Amino acid sequence: MNSLVPSFAVCLVAFIVGAGCRPPGKPTSADIEVKPDEVRDFAALYGLNCAGCHGQEGKGNSALALANPVYLAIASDDTIRRATASGVRGSLMPAFAKSAGGTLTDEQIEIVVREMRARWANSNATAGATPPPYAATEPGNPAAGAAAYGTFCAGCHGPEGKGTEKGSSIVDDSFLALVSDQNLRTTIIAGRPDLGHPDWRHCSPNRAMTPREVTDIVAWLVARRKLNPGQPYASSEPSQKK
Q1: By CB count within 10 A, which of 84, 154, 162, 174 is most buried?
Q2: CATH code for 142-222?
């Protein structure tokens, strides 16, 4: 009977080792928490920092869709990198770089930029057409923009931009206060597929917008932005002192 004890003990040890058991209290790699600076997975980085505004898988939400191939065709890596790192003034886009008060390292920002293009860009996005440049190259003309707006935008957004059943108001005080000039331009060129907004080629059945028309429409919209939206304005009536 006693001769069986050593054999049983050897078998038990062999079973424990073979089953991959570990001594109590010794953590595995899965138990060790990864520090924020050490995250290298694109899905994790995008999900934690971008998806809340730009939507799951870049399909858009309160902010434009980053998985829009037309957007990626006009926005360079440097443009996306700069917006991610430093934010966009005049909009809700914050700075994410640690050097600007954010939470991401330069390496993590590079991962986000690289993987966005690798996963979502499409070399055939513009189908051989030449899109207007991402940034305006000259000042816009609001008066000319009014005419261009009537041709390309009024059918959905109404003659004064106040919206129809097809499209929302684009002259609303809050909207214009929260969107940058560049965002207006980007939306006109790249569209908002998540909202059914066409790109610059398909706003009219007759022809695409020219770069000049895009610039002028942005100027027309910017001219309607109030300096202090939501704040009381000076009254022509004298104030009553109590």
Answers
A1: 84
A2: 1.10.760.10
The class that CATH gives domain 36-120 is: mainly alpha
* CA–centroid distance for 142 within its chain: 27
The predicted-structure confidence for 18-68, as pLDDT tens digits, reads as follows 555 556 666 665 556 678 889 999 999 999 999 999 999 999 999 999 999
Q: Which residues of 85-120 are buried (b: 16+ CB within 10 A; e: fewer)?
A: bbbbeebebebbbeeeebebbeebbebbbeebeeeb
For the four alpha carbons of 131, 133, 138 and 143, in that order, the dihedral sign comes to: positive
Read off the tokens for 178.
Answer: 């929260």
- Going from N- to C-terminal start, the domains of the chain cover 36-120, 142-222
By residue count, the chain amounts to 242
| pTM for this entry | 0.80
Asked if 86 contacts 95 with a C-beta cutoff of 8 angstroms, the reply is: yes
Amino acid letter at 193?
P
- 96-128: per-residue pLDDT in tens? 999 999 999 999 999 999 999 999 999 999 998
